[in-house]
Amino acid sequence: MKVHYIKQLTAIVLLSVLAHTGVATEANTYNRVTYQVTEQKEVNNDEITVTMSIERDHQDATMLADEINQLIITANKTIQKFPDVKSSTSDYSIRPIYTRDNRLDNWRGASSIVLKSQNNKEMTALLQILQKTMVIKSTRFSVSAERKEEIQAGMIEAALKKFNTRAEMVSKGMGFKKYRLVNVNINNSGNTPRPIYAMASANAMSDSIAAPTFESGITTLNVTVSGTIEMEVSP
Q1: Which of 45, 58, 118, 137 allows an S-S link to 141, with CB 3.0 to 4.6 Å?
Q2: In this predicted model, what pLDDT tens digit does every residue of 163-182 receive, in sequence order?
Q3: Phi, psi values for residue 21, rounded to 5°
């Protein structure tokens, strides 16, 4: 009976200590300020991504698949002659097309090749060749991953310096002699504008297709540092 009473008393004391600790922790979260600073920079895009597509119709699904495959093989052989252009195949499909009364009309096949390069001269020359059998589905300009990482490293350093300067200003402005950092978060992003794409010659199957021209534009890189400081009174 005595042992049971001691166990109960011990449990009550522990709960009391834990509750007091929680209150003390909550009570100490005063004199805190949360804010954020942003570093922004406009950067010229140095990488272009172009998606080329093929779409064909045929009465026979097997013959259609063979035609699509042969066109992709030929395109890949051409791409290999341009070492500064990376490529990958995507969106391959062969699907039935039905009439309004739900009868099979024909088969439609499609496939795409995604091209990526930092060499605009090579990309332009390659596209001029591929446009004889393929069409440009989309284009996108961006800052290459290596360059973006290098630029944002400097931006993060500048944003952290700005954050610390703001912390000192806030602390002194509110009459405190020192502060400590409670937490900090770093976020970065890039806002890529819609690229401008222009192409002369409307006939995609012509043997005399003019080379496409591109305006790469700029990307706005952002680095945001947000966090909370706790101001303290020092003797």
Answers
A1: 45
A2: 999 999 999 998 898 899 99
A3: -65, -45
